[in-house]
Design brief:
GO biological process, one term: chromosome separation
Number of domains: 2
CATH superfamily of the largest domain: Winged helix-like DNA-binding domain superfamily/Winged helix DNA-binding domain
Family: Belongs to the ScpB family.
Number of strands: 5
Strand content: 5-15%
Pfam families: SMC_ScpB (PF04079)
Distance between the termini: 36 Å
Organism: Lactobacillus gasseri (strain ATCC 33323 / DSM 20243 / BCRC 14619 / CIP 102991 / JCM 1131 / KCTC 3163 / NCIMB 11718 / NCTC 13722 / AM63)
CATH architecture of the largest domain: Orthogonal Bundle
Keywords: Cell cycle, Cell division, Chromosome partition, Cytoplasm
CATH class of the largest domain: Mainly Alpha
């Protein structure tokens, strides 16, 4: 009879089986029959093990209280080839501007974005959808029923945020003469993710 897998192995297997959707904290607590503190300990240990294993192409992340196994940044080039698109390509200034508007004003329609920017945003919107950073989330109850756009979990992952609450507070920059890049990828990529959630 094979011995029962460790809790860490069970966590890894569950997240692998869950795929892109991942598993929420409450589901993992029930499935693994452990406490929130024990889950955090397991998650941090698994995260460190994957990070320190040069032969592993996976990483563990937690976004909006949902744990996921994803491919590591170091494997980005080969994954890009697989999907035949360059996920590491920098976003244009207009795309970042639109992404900022959606992040802070979501859900929002294209017309509302156009009104704020003063120019047509259709092309950049499609790029952001294609890149998986935004998605359509229903339609606005007005004539024409335009699509409503919101950011995705991949948006949080891409910029190394754990939730929308981590976005900079706009008021903090109102008195600052220096321009602020809300999505400074170099700065965000240096941010260490910790799984210390509130119990």
């Amino acid at each position: 009879m094979r011995p029962m897998a460790s809790k860490e192995a069970q966590l890894e297997a569950l997240l692998y089986a869950a795929g892109d959707d991942g598993l929420e904290t409450d589901n993992l607590l029930q499935l693994l029959e452990i406490s929130p503190s024990a889950l955090r300990e397991l998650a941090n240990h698994l995260k460190d093990r994957l990070k320190n294993d040069e032969n592993s192409g996976l990483q563990l992340i937690c976004i909006n209280h949902t744990y996921k196994l994803t491919t590591s940044a170091e494997c980005g080039d080969v994954i890009s080839k697989f999907f035949q698109k360059d996920l590491s390509k920098n976003l244009s200034q207009s795309a970042l501007e639109i992404l900022s508007i959606i992040a802070y004003r979501q859900p929002i329609t294209r017309v509302e974005i156009d009104d704020l920017r003063g120019v047509n945003s259709s092309g950049a919107l499609q790029t952001l959808v294609w890149r998986g950073l935004i998605k359509v989330n229903g339609k606005k109850d007005v004539p024409g029923h335009p699509n409503l756009y919101v950011t995705t979990d991949y948006f949080l992952q891409y910029f190394n945020y754990e939730s929308l609450a981590d976005l900079p507070v706009i008021e903090e920059f109102e008195a600052d003469d220096n321009p602020v890049n809300l999505f400074d990828q170099d700065e965000q990529n240096s941010k260490e993710i910790n799984f210390d959630e509130g119990e």
